[in-house]
Write a structure and sequence with these properties.
By secondary structure, the protein is mainly α. The protein contains three helices and no strands. α1 packs across α3. The longest helix has about 30 residues. It is rod-shaped.
């Protein structure tokens, strides 16, 4: 769960950039793979190397899952058209009691 959230957060850090999903996922993969290897190495310092390698791969997979969830959410949000904006100082917008947030 923690690594899924980590993947989501790392993907969100670059969410304002207009980058492709593949570039975003590549960037996330680099960050989370490094973090998962560091985390598992510190936790399993005296264990078998095969165990922490498997654990690091599972952590990275969970983080990539979180990044994919973010990318799907971002695609869904970008699919909606931008809302209309009314300006309070524009006379043609007079009568909109919602202070310019929603069209009538």
């Amino acid at each position: 769960m923690a690594f899924t959230l980590l993947g989501y957060l790392v993907a969100e850090m670059g969410g304002r950039k207009d980058e492709s999903a593949s570039n975003s996922l590549r960037r996330v993969f680099g960050y989370v793979l490094a973090f998962s290897i560091l985390s598992t190495t510190l936790r399993n310092l005296f264990s078998e190397p095969a165990f922490y390698l498997v654990e690091a791969v599972l952590f990275a997979a969970a983080a990539m899952y979180g990044a994919i969830i973010y990318r799907l959410q971002l695609a869904a949000v970008r699919a909606f058209p931008p809302p209309a904006v009314y300006h309070a100082d524009d006379p043609s917008d007079a009568g909109h009691g919602d202070h310019g947030r929603h069209p009538a």
